[in-house]
Structures are given as structure tokens and as C-alpha cells.
Amino acid sequence: YSEDFAEALTGLSRRQLQYWDRTGFFSPGIVDENRRVAFSRIYTFRDIVSLRVLAKLRNDFKVPLQHLREVAKKLSHLREEKWIRTTLYVANKKVVFDHPETGLRQEVVSGQGVLEIPLQIAVSETKQRIAEMGERSRNQIGRVVQSRFIRHNDVVLAGTRVPVSAIKNFAEAGYSADQI
């Protein structure tokens, strides 16, 4: 594919494509030594797919070009397939991938692991934990305790914040045990 087609297919400007070729970041699959002649840069299908990935990383996810250069160095063992052979992710404007040896997601350049916490699981676990915290244990039922961190040192039912004085007031007001 010519530079015109590469520009149209990837959304990258001709100037950007030429800059990447000139600086060695991304060169087309077929090049002429004299880059000034017509059709001196011919892009293969693999090049176009790679450029689309790079365009998405740069333009949609705002990954800095310097970081992409470092990623390219780290993935250089994949040669011309470095941008299409593995699934890439973005976390905080850094490229992340599934490490082939460990199977864990990690940031490509630093090797920092990426913690994955699916939101649905976090929400359901939090709700479950809140419900568990609201339940009293068997050894707390029928006991009263006093703690300076609960109701300013009032005597309360164990495992609750219900003051004994409130129960006493309800009883004196004529409420039955079931009503209280």
C-alpha cells in the first residue's frame, strides 16, 4: 500500500508516517534507499494493521510516543509482528500485555504487574462484607459491654450501638419486650 493508502487506512498523517520511518520507530515493509522517489515507502497488510494499533494507542489512549518507543524495544523479539502478535492493553497511558511466560498482565516497559479487580466482584464482595459486619456473633447475644469508642463509653448491647439506657427508657414507657 502506498503512503496515501496507509494514511487513509490508519488515520495517521503522511508527515507522521514519514517521521516514524525517518526516526526508525516504524518503517514500512518495503522501502527504497532514496526516500525521495515516488513509492519509496510501500506498506504491507501487516504494516497497516500495526499502524492502526499504533494510531489507536497514540490518538485514542494518548500513550506518549516515547513510551511506545520503549515498548517497541522490549517487544523487539517479535520483530515486525510486535504490534499485532499479542493483545495490548492500556493502563494509565502505559502499554500492558499478557506476559507469555507467566500469563499475568504487566506493563511492558517496567515489568510492573497490573492488578485486575473486576468491578462486579468488588461491589458484591463489599456488600457481602457489610452484611457480615452487621451480624452479631452468638457469644455477643445477651451481653452488655462498655467501650470508650462506642457511644462515648455508654453501656450497650454487645455487637451493637444500642444503649442499655434506651431499652430501659422504652420499658419504663410501657413497651413490651417484643415491641422493643
Note the gap between the termini.
82 Å
Strand content: 5-15%
- In terms of quaternary structure, the protein is single chain
What order do the helices and strands follow? HHEEHHEEEHEEH
The rough form would be described as: rod-shaped
Helix content: 25-40%
- Based on helices, strands and strand pairing, what is the structural class? alpha+beta
Within the largest sheet, what's the order of strands?
Answer: 3-4-5
> What is the residue-mean pLDDT, rounded to a whole number?
87
Radius of gyration, whole Å: 32 Å
Q: Tell me the major beta sheet.
A: 3 strands, antiparallel
Number of helices: 6
Number of strands: 7
Q: pLDDT under 50 segments (min length 5)?
A: none
List keywords for this structure.
180 residues; alpha+beta; three-stranded antiparallel beta sheet; two-stranded antiparallel sheet; 6 helices
Provide a descriptive summary of the structure in words.
Helices cover 38% and strands 12% of the residues. The protein is an alpha+beta fold. The longest helix is centred in the N-terminal third of the chain and has 16 residues, at 45-60. The chain is rod-shaped. The model has no long low-confidence stretch (mean pLDDT 87).
